[in-house]
């Protein structure tokens, strides 16, 4: 299983970006999906997560720093999770990582997979 993240780039403060993270490979089902970010010299932090198999099936949580500005969503038919980021601020500058909890077969074991990281830079 591989996760391919895309959509990062340079944007001015107040602008918007949408990140995508597509999973491919041997996928039986995808459970929780999430986005994290990492500022230089700091630990990776959770910013948004959907706990259920569908956007309406489980709960969605956001870090206080992005609540009201970022929206996480998923398209199960495409094995893809999105992060819509609006009203971006310079402090949102970071490398963003997607995470998907994936069941790869009939066995109930769930594995955690990470995307390669995509850089978001917000200029003031």
- Helical content class: under 10%
- Write down how many β-strands occur, each being a DSSP E stretch of 2 or more residues: 11
- Rounded mean pLDDT score: 94
The number of distinct helices, counting runs of at least 4 residues, comes to 0
Give a verbal description of the structure:
- By secondary structure, the protein is mostly beta strands.
- 0% of the residues lie in helices and 56% in strands.
- The chain has no helices and 11 strands.
- The strands form 2 sheets. Strands 2, 4, 5, 6, 9, 10 and 11 form a 7-stranded mixed sheet that branches. The protein has a 4-stranded antiparallel sheet with strand order 1-3-8-7, with no helix packed on it.
- The chain is elongated.
- It starts with a strand and ends with a strand.
- The mean pLDDT is 94.
Which short descriptors sum up this protein?
124 residues; mainly beta; 7-stranded mixed sheet; 11 strands; 56% strand
Summarize, please.
The chain has 124 residues and is mainly β. Helix content is 0%, strand content 56%. Strands 2, 4, 5, 6, 9, 10 and 11 form a seven-stranded mixed sheet that branches. A four-stranded antiparallel sheet has the order 1-3-8-7, with no helix packed on it.
